[in-house]
Design a protein that fits this description.
CATH superfamily of the largest domain: Medium-chain alcohol dehydrogenases, catalytic domain
Structural class: alpha/beta
GO molecular function: oxidoreductase activity; zinc ion binding
Organism: Propionispora vibrioides
InterPro entries: ADH-like_C, ADH-like_N, ADH_Zn_CS, ER, GroES-like_sf, NAD(P)-bd_dom_sf, Zn_alcohol_dh
CATH class of the largest domain: Alpha Beta
Family: Belongs to the zinc-containing alcohol dehydrogenase family.
Number of strands: 18
Cofactor: Zn(2+)
Distance between the termini: 9 Å
CATH architecture of the largest domain: Alpha-Beta Complex
Low-confidence stretches: none
Shape: globular
Length: 348
Amino acid sequence: MDALKLYGVRDIRFEQAENPVIQSANDVIVKVKAAGICGSDISRYKLLGPYIPGMIWGHEFSGEVVEAGIAVTNVAKGDRVAGCPVVFDGEDYYYKKGEYNRSDFNTAIGAKRPGAFAEYICLPSQNLVPIPDTLSFDAAALMEPSTVVLHGLYRTSLSVGDTVAVVGAGGSLGLLAIQWVKVFGAKKVIAIDIDDAKLAIAKRLGADVIINSLQEDTEAVILQHSEGLKADLVIEAAGSPITASQVFAYAKKGGGVVFLGIPYGDVTVKRYYFEKILRSELTVWGSWSNVSAPFPGKEWSDSVHFFAEGKINTEEIITHRLPLSKGPEVFEKLMERKELFGKVILHP
């Protein structure tokens, strides 16, 4: 089968790979219909390289069941599914408590076992979530980043009528977060990014205020649009070492900050920002992964429901649809940043 394999930093190859086979009674083989490129994929391509050289890459996908093990009951041949990428290579205290996202054995496909940038993938049946016929495969491939956002929001105290600031609003996580906080009942959403084209998309997806942080005093504009109080909740979705420090200045006293983005670099917090945690008595939530009990969790069932109801717009987020063979080329274009890239969907 065709596949994209990551061999090293900026070394991804379109090659042949062996088709997966059923190895246990609970295994399912899925024909991948759509696979998304994640921001973490870009960082690993640019900076870190693979866990295992030559591993089939990718972890955001949807597809159709083509074969199922004899013990599988939740899906059947022909079912349309979204794939939860979280797999486990052991059990520990947190796993046994059902806190799967905290387990040290929590890993993702594309890391230590074959991923979704391929024609076929094999996963345990519990990792497959049925999707309705009305939901496109491309949209369902965004189910995974959606669940990352939801997992973080479920950890917060977000409530109806809140003002929410989304930092890194132009990325997939940010654009999904803008829509999800509206579903949660946020009264005002302030979108912050450094790209005007992406801020325009944020506006179309429901942001009430947009701020280019390279051109405006972000803290001052937030004050202006929050009756001088700042945001009840700040969502850090950029994964930037710079914004990971600045976000503490955007929350109101007694407010909170939730971290969704992964800063691939050391974070240095200036005294001004750090004192906001203390003097404003902020609550800070870390968020990791996208699963809960019963596995894979309400992050997935709720995403399916609201995607199917049309409450989450994915068409504005997807900017490129390409054949899998274009993978090496598009990753290099992502490095060049000469054109607007949102979510890139690869079709095996």
